[in-house]
Design brief:
Radius of gyration of chain B: 23 Å
Shape of chain A: globular
Number of helices of chain A: 13
Largest sheet of chain A: none
GO biological process, one term (chain B): protein transport
Distance between the termini of chain A: 11 Å
Family (chain B): Belongs to the binding-protein-dependent transport system permease family. OppBC subfamily.
Order of helices and strands of chain A: HHHHHHHHHHHHH
CATH topology of the largest domain in chain A: MetI-like fold
Number of domains of chain B: 1
CATH superfamily of chain B: MetI-like
CATH superfamily of the largest domain in chain A: MetI-like
CATH architecture of the largest domain in chain A: Orthogonal Bundle
Helix content of chain B: over 70%
Keywords (chain B): Cell membrane, Membrane, Peptide transport, Protein transport, Transmembrane, Transmembrane helix, Transport
Pfam family, one (chain B): OppC_N
CATH architecture of chain B: Orthogonal Bundle
CATH class of the largest domain in chain A: Mainly Alpha
Oligomer: heterodimer
Number of strands of chain A: 0
Membrane topology (chain B): Multi-pass membrane protein
Radius of gyration of chain A: 24 Å
Largest interface: A-B, 48 and 45 residues
Number of domains of chain A: 2
Order of helices and strands of chain B: HHHHHHHHHHHH
Largest sheet of chain B: none
Strand content of chain B: under 5%
Number of strands of chain B: 0
Distance between the termini of chain B: 35 Å
Chain lengths: 341, 301
């Protein structure tokens, strides 16, 4: 099979990047409509029902609502490019500052969940593919179909009940025990990492123990998906002729499975992982609400309930942007790394 | 005619005497395949039971789902209240039954909104190709690339939290895969000889799409919709849980979890019972969908 020339790879990359640009433009357009056009009166959502008329008028002009829609969109766009997302009514901070405060918590949660999901999901998938229709395979099937059917709120509440209330293994909700709040200076925004940098073992262990349960809950859904995809890829790979050859050469089963078959699906799996990570960001919204995790999902939900549209749009843009970039990375990884595509 | 539907020999006949016999024979064989799949049968039975609960809710309920009785708050399950009472003394069992109406109603509304949109966009794009295809598929891609829950949340917040906006928001973020699917199916059908034959008889493009292409796309669309129903149930419940779906006092299951979650530690059954209802419903649709896919569309498995 012929490998693609660098020029062709570049062209493909260009096409992918331009499609990202279009999608991002779509994101901006849709958030513009959601924030500025759909609400009957954005001023009312900011100032409330009982604002004085002159204040309403001033706000209208400040928001540029007296201008035609395309002009408003242009203003919205230029503000975005300057990183100006406006002010949150609820926290009265700049939305950008709020995001800087809340987003690291979400990344910390999502990344830990991703590590769980990968470390458990991939071996499960591989083993169930190797021993098809065995007890283990049956278990993985049930495990993953339940993972697809159980809503995160339900799983989260059950796990809190069992591991916190009944068994007492997990600490309560939140990111860290009350006694440790604000004990470490913020460097990275990831509490566990910050505690390590500060050399504070107590805070580190406390933060880590708070992290485990929400991360495990968030990981379950992705684990189900990862193990199912791994199983499907592996079954495909194990049927390949090179695997039969490797077996015929007398290589050990472990070597055949992990080096030959698994090595061949690694790229496709990387794509799945990137997509899963993007999906985790969404699951984090609900998980954070259950575990009072002060991340972007909680920020978004609380802003939603208070109709704080600047904050809602800011959080939506951020999650949408990260989601799209991860999707793009998955796509690029697939196209660049896998010569067959 | 009806009696014959129970006549195996008539159904499985190798030389059917009429179109109806052939059609019913084909359906019977599909049913035989489906029946062999135990989990799928459980799924089907549960879905039917859920539908029955929803339709017969007024008959099956022991109490009124919204009448409050503050003297009987947070009672554990008993002969009086089969699944206990919630924080306002309402009978949880009766609320669950009416909640099935809300949940299944929302799912149905989403499907009714989404399937025709997806079918129309996909078939038109696939049939005409060219500029229409490029534009429609670009729009589809943009929507596909969105994080669905986030978009739906922002959308609901902009209009007003409630069941109607939740349904619209879910529909808005659910149609793209159907459009993709319908387009792919259309592309394989559009160059078939019989389409060319229909065109020669002078049928208009609209007629070809509506009468000859759309019906053929339906099969895989139905499978896909059934597979997605559990996702839609979870989606609706998550919106309800986050306070953006059906609003209290509606007995929507996700909303019930949200209002009862602060009683988790002491009266755990109050938030968990609606949660289990969601789990059962979405599991049932998943099993049913998997079974249907295996039977109707072996390629996708």
């Amino acid at each position: 099979m012929q490998r693609h020339s660098p020029a062709r790879t570049l062209a493909r990359l260009g096409a992918t990047v331009s499609s990202l640009a279009i999608t991002l433009f779509g994101l901006v357009l849709v958030t513009f409509f959601i924030g500025r056009v759909i609400p009957i009166d954005p001023v009312l959502t900011i100032l409330g029902d009982h604002a004085r008329p002159e204040l309403v008028e001033r706000m209208r002009i400040e928001l540029g609502l007296d201008k035609p829609l395309p002009v408003q969109f242009w203003i919205y766009l230029t503000h975005l490019f300057r990183g100006d997302l406006g002010r949150s009514v609820m926290t009265s901070n700049l939305v950008v500052d709020d995001i800087k405060l809340y987003f690291p918590a979400t990344v910390e949660l999502g990344t830990t969940a991703m590590i769980f999901a990968t470390l458990i999901g991939i071996p499960l998938g591989v083993l169930s593919a190797v021993r098809r229709n065995s007890r283990l395979d049956q278990f993985v099937r049930v495990f993953s179909i339940v993972g697809h059917s159980i809503p995160i709120p339900v799983l989260g509440l059950i796990s809190l009940l069992v591991f916190y209330a009944w068994l007492g293994w997990a600490p309560g909700t939140g990111r860290v025990g009350v006694a440790y709040v604000g004990m470490t200076p913020t460097v990275t925004g990831f509490l566990t990492v910050d505690a390590l940098i500060a050399g504070d073992a107590d805070v580190f262990w406390d933060a880590l123990s708070h992290l485990m349960l929400p991360a495990a809950v968030l990981a379950y859904f992705s684990m189900a998906y990862i193990s199912r995809m791994t199983r499907a890829f592996m079954i495909d790979a194990l049927a390949g002729e090179y695997v039969i050859t490797a077996r015929a050469k007398g290589l050990s089963p472990a070597r055949v499975i992990w080096r030959h078959a698994f090595g061949n699906i690694a790229v496709r799996l990387a794509t799945v992982l990137a997509l899963t990570y993007a999906g985790l960001l969404e699951g984090a919204v609900v998980t954070e609400m259950i575990f009072s995790w002060p991340g972007i999902g909680q920020y978004l939900t609380v802003s939603l309930l208070n109709a704080d549209m600047n904050a809602v749009i800011g959080a939506t843009l951020l999650v949408g942007f990260v989601y799209m970039v991860l999707n793009l990375l998955a796509d690029v990884a697939y196209r660049v790394l896998d010569p067959r595509v | 005619m009806i009696g014959r539907l129970f006549d195996r020999a008539w159904l499985l006949s190798d030389s059917p005497q009429s179109r109806a016999q052939a059609a019913w024979g084909r359906r019977y064989r599909l049913w035989c395949d489906f029946r062999a799949n135990k989990p799928a049968l459980y799924g089907l039975a549960t879905v039917i039971a859920l539908l029955a609960c929803a339709i017969l809710a007024p008959l099956l309920a022991t109490h009124d789902p919204v009448t409050q009785n503050l003297g009987q708050r947070l009672l554990p399950p008993s002969t009086q209240h089969w699944l206990g009472t919630d924080e306002l003394g309402r009978d949880v069992y009766s609320r669950l039954l009416y909640g099935a109406r809300v949940t299944l109603g929302m799912v149905l509304a989403v499907v009714v909104l989404v399937a025709p949109i997806g079918l129309a966009v996909g078939c038109v794009a696939g049939y005409y190709r060219g500029a229409a295809d490029v534009i429609l598929m670009r729009v589809t891609d943009v929507f596909l690339a969105f994080p669905r829950l986030i978009l739906a949340l922002a959308f609901v917040a902009a209009i007003q939290p409630g069941m109607t906006s939740a349904v619209i928001a879910i529909a808005l973020t659910t149609w793209p895969p159907y459009a993709r699917l319908a387009r792919a199916e259309t592309m394989t059908i559009r160059d078939a000889d019989y389409i060319a034959a229909v065109r020669m008889t002078g049928a208009s493009s609209g007629r070809i799409i509506l009468r000859h292409i759309m019906p053929l796309c339906l099969g895989s669309l139905i499978v896909r919709v059934t597979l997605d129903m559990s996702a839609i149930i979870i989606f609706a419940a998550s919106l309800g849980f986050l306070g953006m779906g059906a609003q209290p006092p509606s007995p929507e299951w996700g909303t019930m979890i949200a209002t009862a979650r602060r009683f988790l530690l002491d009266q755990w059954w109050v938030p968990l019972i609606p949660g289990i209802a969601i789990l059962v419903a979405s599991l049932a649709f998943n099993l049913l969908g998997d079974g249907l896919r295996d039977v109707l569309d072996p390629r996708q498995g």
